[in-house]
Amino acid sequence: YDPSKIRNFCIIAHIDHGKSTLADRLLETTRSVAAREMKAQLLDSMDIERERGITIKLQAARMDYFASDGERYILNLIDTPGHVDFAYEVSRSLQAHGEIWGDACEGALLVVDASQGVEAQTIANHASRINRQVYRRVLGQDLEILPVLNKIDLPGADADKVAGEVEDVIGLDCSEAIAASAKQGIGIEVSPWSGQAVRGGQARSMTSAPPLPPSLRPSSRRRHLPLRALVFDSYYDAYRGVIVFIRVVDGKTLGELRKGDRIQIQFSASGAKYEALEVGVLTPGVGAGQQSRPVLRAGEVGYVHGAIKSVDDARVGDTITISAYKDGSAPPPTEALPGYREPVPMVYCGLFPTETTQYQLLRDSLEKLKLNDAALVWEPETSSAMGFGFRACCHGDHWQERLEREYDLDLIVTAPSVVYEVELNDGTVERVDSPAKLCDADKRSCISEPYVKMELFAPKEYSGTLMELAQQRRGERGEYRDMKFIGPERVAITYDLPLAEVITDFFDQMKSRSKGYASMEYQITENRPNDLVRLDILIAQEPAPPLSTIVHRDAAHSIGKKLTRTLKDLIPRQQFKVALQAAIGQKIVASSAISAMRKDVLAKCYGGDISRKKKLLNKQAKGKKRMKAIGKVNVPQEAFMAVLSLK
Ligand code: GDP
Ligand code: MG
Hints:
Radius of gyration: 27 Å
Number of strands: 36
Strand content: 25-35%
Shape: globular
Distance between the termini: 61 Å
Number of helices: 15
Low-confidence stretches: 40-58, 81-98, 131-141, 190-223
Mean pLDDT: 76
Strand order of the largest sheet: 13-12-18-9-10-17-14-15
Bound molecules: guanosine-5'-diphosphate, magnesium ion
Helix content: 10-25%
């Protein structure tokens, strides 16, 4: 164990630029994985990830590397969620992870596809994170980012040009960038921190790699501090309980994390205490990628488990300290590492099985998912219109997909709603996580909603259209804060925005208005009172509470109009004419109607061929799957989401 020989780093890349391939190649080159064990893309372990080709969960891999200086180094590759392509929720978790990831490593490889370059949205999705890292480095935190210009084997690759782009767009020095081909093993063989520099023309060796920065380096002084380990990931294992991935930050001899020593560890945020039953390092290709070790010391990355019951006890970003040694004595109380933020669910949606018989199955499935996902919060919800279901915080669309895929459920998901704070006339304050639960206007004195500080990063030519987007959503709701140049071509625009506006199709709009070049990052800042009203929808005179939405009074009319018009296109025709109305209280503010269906859908197939008829019936059967009857009218899944993307 020599802390000066430990290198903890991660790989940042836009999707498809070669992050997984590079990781695999590093594992292979360091012989961390025997060739026959080499499955493509080892680090992407979940099924869904593999299928989508993205990395959702953080993982880590330890490699032993014998450098040309004759020394042995330990490389810990910490994998991080790679891209923000689905929804707003992901950007939130990325943000949290991004910071923790920054704490877990000292170096980052920025992989850029040299055949596409920065212009192809590469940096767009990561600009904010990279900028933050650059910023940290400026602050003297020794975060080293090494650009890797990948895919130089491709005929169209131009490493020099792309290096120039990286310098211009994010101001990252490329004089020591590595030209590589993860696929063909070029620029990989030596180490992630070496190889032929593109421009400097000087080969770097492993010894010039960034060691643990002084602030984090486990110097002798630091080793005499009581143990503190940062939790950067965890997952639930049915046999061993929660497996916790950690980076040991400080620890003296007694404070090292040892297995089987009856050392009691404590999670600072949750307060949970467990005995450390096993500790080890993360080595893909060995067992479950985990290899038991007698001890983990400061600077090392590994795992610990101790029959931990729930991921709720071991949250990402939390700190592990020792609460008692085996002789029963306790170390002095130790402060948690900075940076942990309690996850506060701020956005909820309704989950209803299309078949009422699936209610119990849905409950069981949610319970199983919860074991692995501390941020998943849910409670039963009964709706007169929808029957039995659940109200859950909607973060990430992947769990909804997992529910449907892994548990074979058919679900209707209602549009997400932020959590409003409502002050009632008697002075009590309640949290309202569903528009349907908002009391009538005369019973409350004040309603406030969460606001975010939104940063939009984009090439400067898109600033106008993005400002329009941020400002004019549903009636001048965004408040401009400022605009800064980051690099000669890019700007960062800051707005205060209601979170409710962000969870609509804001992300898609931002992408389409900027041709994919913009990215965003936001943080919830405060609750602000606003003149908000509930806009109800009536379908064939029946109220449809799951379609209700809370909007600013000034925008209610126009939203009502757009919503009824959109619903008209989304709800299939019935045997009878269906009126669609939008109302505030008793007052109808907009209406539209779906005309009755013609006699027989199959009529037009008379005399036609049978396969066409079958196709039509099939199509109807499929459509039915994701429908829920409200009153006499079948409402398809898309209609429940209509309010998110009003034209
Ligand atoms: P990720 O999304 O960043 O993890 O990217 P992957 O590692 O999955 O790579 C995306 C695609 O690019 C795959 O088809 C890889 O085979 C290919 N690829 C990755 N690195 C290289 C390279 O150096 N050269 C070439 N020609 N293709 C590569
Ligand atoms: Mg990948």
